[in-house]
Amino acid sequence: MAHARLRSPSPPASNKRAKTAISLIDDTESRFAPGLLTDSNIQRLNQEYLCSEPYKYCVIDKLFNDTLLSQVKDECIQQLGFTEKSTDIYRVHQTGDLASLSYLPKEQLDLLQGLLVLRDALYSSQFREFLQRVTGCGALSGIKQDMSVNSYKSGCHLLNHDDVIGTRRVSYILYMPLPVGEKWDESWGGTLELYPAKNGEPETIPTKRIPPAWNQFIFFEVQPGKSFHSVEEVVVGGGNDPRERLSISGWFHQAQEGEEGHEFELADREKSSLEQLTSGLERTFIPYPDDSPPPIPPILSEEDKEFLSQFMNPLYFSAKNLSMMAESFAAESSLQAQKFLREDLAAELEVGLRQLDTQEQLGHSRERMIPLHSNGAAPDSDWIIKGPPHKHRYCVFRNQDGQPEGATKILKQLQDVLFPSPAFRTWLALVSSLLPLQYSVEARRFRPGLDYTLATSENGEIRLDAVLCLTPDIEVEGKGKGKAEANWESGEWGGWQCYMAADEDDDDPAVYGSGKRKKEKAANGETNDEDEDSDDEDGSGTLLTVQPGFNRLQLVLRDAGVLHFVKYVSAKAHGSRWDVCCEWEVGQVELEEDEDGNLMTIR
């Protein structure tokens, strides 16, 4: 008999009567693996927990009775509905909060007997006492339950964070990966990665990796500045491939008001990774030298053109094109300049960057679909990994003696010579009608399966961004350029640059694509034609999305509070995303004539 797939419900409003939840009839201890809750096992686990690195965590190889967990797995697949969710920090298929299952009608509860028994056993007083004794974490709530089922299929991932939100005290994950009976291979991805921390921020590379295993239970105390972790991208599953990283995960919260052991939240706790992220990045800006006066009024001299022509396409020097670009930028606050670099320079870069990816096991034919963290950033490489990964991770030039060669040399010249130059400052002022005051610039390499930036913004200041994307076109043997089944343009490989308006009412401004505002309006009967006709159908507030390309300059005037990020580059990608990223603090330049016809400046 076929059943309709269920959605996890929301709790009823306070003026509605809740449905009667099914209780845990049998003895709780019988639901768990034999010997789990014994004193001797607790003492053993406590010693392992205290000695674990990079921070205190515990792995239980077998948590529940296998018969019960198999029943739960079947119920999750056959009865629960999953929603794909994608943000700057994760992509996952997820159910609603399972704490709400108790409010389902009886005929639906009858289809989820195993899941209800598992949930009640997990949040029972016996198991909460077990966790407290193993971790020493303090009292845990039995009334505040927080759990969901997560399916990581091909392309799903979860980037670095510390889980510190509200009253969360212990984070956990219970694995039931598919197919059952087959050991999950590490080459499939989905490994839980734990990161050491220094001065409250995670190091760039994890030091502990835990692949999924059937009935495995992992937990750790949630601690600001310490409990940093991520989930590696899953690279199998989808279509006719049944493999998926299926799990139940959630949190035990500290005892709530009215429960034994309740304590007030400490007001002086360290910032969580989310709070650090939303407070913006610390960026070092370099002022222009004193002997380089500001271009007022901006006039591109023959000397400037001669300098810029070493790098740039001469088409961008003509008065007509400069005027057209300035008009377009004034209207849109953004501009794309295709074929920005000289043709010969671009051709050398395209070939050279492809070769670098191939040599460093980051290209299409690499041995591992998910590269090692050292790929592209080995000790003898020109590149080094830049973090911290709860904000961003990508490669930048290593400070070392000697000059790089080939494509790397050109990138360094763009970074150190072209973009900081007074001539480019003048060109920028002509196109943007803004006065660049000081700058920050870096050449970046985003490696597939590893690198990204998370959504950040600057409060109270506008920025002028210029990103010269230099990601080579796809070249697959036997198919030529741009003929891969998936490519950068499709968005499946990630690496796209996104600008979005922050939702001031959202607790997590780094989340996009959730449609939160629109759903709330619909629930309150506040939708209108404008909402329905909006191009931004998911309510995400996305202002601009730019897919990776080659030899294209993207110029954007970013208002204060606008979030921006580069999406995680999928392990599916056939190479790295390369760019030179520049950011300027700017002032406004307006020119008016005085009574004698002379130009005067107003800032």
From TrEMBL:
- What cofactor does this one take? L-ascorbate
What GO cellular component term, any one, is given? nucleus
* InterPro entries the UniProt entry points to: Oxoglu/Fe-dep_dioxygenase_dom, Oxoglutarate/Fe-dep_Oase_C, Pro_4_hyd_alph, TPA1/Ofd1_C, TPA1/OFD1_N, uS12_prolyl_hydroxylase
Q: Where is this region: Disordered?
A: 509-542
**Where does the record place it?**
Nucleus
User: Any keyword Nucleotide-binding?
Assistant: no
Bias kind Acidic residues: ranges: 527-539
Query: What is the protein's name according to its record?
Result: uS12 prolyl 3,4-dihydroxylase
Whose protein is this, by species? Clathrus columnatus
The record lists the lineage as:
Eukaryota, Fungi, Dikarya, Basidiomycota, Agaricomycotina
